[in-house]
Specification:
The two termini are about 15 Å apart. This protein folds into two domains: about 150 residues, Endonuclease/exonuclease/phosphatase (Deoxyribonuclease I, Chain A), CATH 3.60.10; about 45 residues, no CATH class. It is built from six helices and ten strands, in the order βαβαβαβαβαβαββββ. The strands form three sheets. The chain has a four-stranded mixed beta sheet with strand order 1-2-4-3, with no helix packed on it. By secondary structure, the protein is α+β, with helices and mostly antiparallel strands. The longest helix is centred in the N-terminal third of the chain and has 19 residues. β9 and β10 form a beta hairpin.
Length: about 210
């Protein structure tokens, strides 16, 4: 059967001086630290056994020293959390999400329920260099954003087929449609809506 994922999108306070001043609640780094601390507590208490992915412009780097790193509590909790994009932060600055600074500020955090999937050979994380297809960074920066998107592809085990599910539930599938309402085959990929004869509709994300 399909699996549920909890996706949390964040955009943390901008601007840096690379110094975390814990004595000043209005310090930019301190505001991000407070947000990260609350976010971790929220996931720890609400989604203890869920597949959680945190994404967004978190406006700070992963490679700061521990005393100035707003993400240190998460980085240290290696049993429960992993920044999937850490290899990008350790890599070539030309591949950062904010290459004009340069810095890598946009992150993807996953919980331990996804570690096994992320470790599979076909799982990938990377900055999506759309600017390479627009004639360069200036065109992208002027027309799209000053940050590149960061993408994550997870190799997951195949879900049980819709036919097998129907045999278990003893209901009939009327049709399958995509996000645009176009009828598609049941083995199509993407976000699909399965419409059954009992009036129920199930949404599934079908991946390779």
């Amino acid at each position: 059967m399909g699996e549920d994922y909890e996706i949390i999108k964040n955009h943390l306070k901008c601007c840096v001086d690379d110094i975390l001043n814990t004595n000043d609640p209005n310090d930019e780094e301190m505001r991000r630290l407070t947000a990260v601390t609350l976010l971790k507590k929220y996931i720890d208490s609400i989604f203890t056994n869920e597949r959680v992915i945190v994404v967004g412009d978190l406006n700070d780097v992963l490679t700061d020293s521990p005393t100035n790193n707003v993400f240190q509590s998460i980085i240290d909790d290696t049993v429960n959390y992993m920044f999937a994009d850490f290899p990008i932060a350790l890599g070539n600055p030309t591949d950062f999400s904010y290459p004009s600074w340069p810095s890598h500020l946009d992150h993807i955090l996953i919980t331990n329920e996804l570690f096994a999937d992320f470790s599979k050979p076909n799982s990938i994380v990377s900055c999506i260099r759309i600017d390479d297809y627009m004639g360069g960074w200036n065109a992208y920066d002027n027309n799209i954003s000053d940050h590149r998107p960061v993408g994550l592809k997870l190799e997951i085990d195949a879900v049980i087929s819709a036919t097998y599910e129907l045999e278990i539930l003893d209901i009939k599938l009327i049709k399958v449609v995509d996000l645009l309402g176009k009828e598609v085959e049941g083995n199509a990929k993407g976000i699909l809506f399965y419409m059954y004869d009992n009036g129920s509709v199930a949404k599934r994300i079908v991946v390779e």
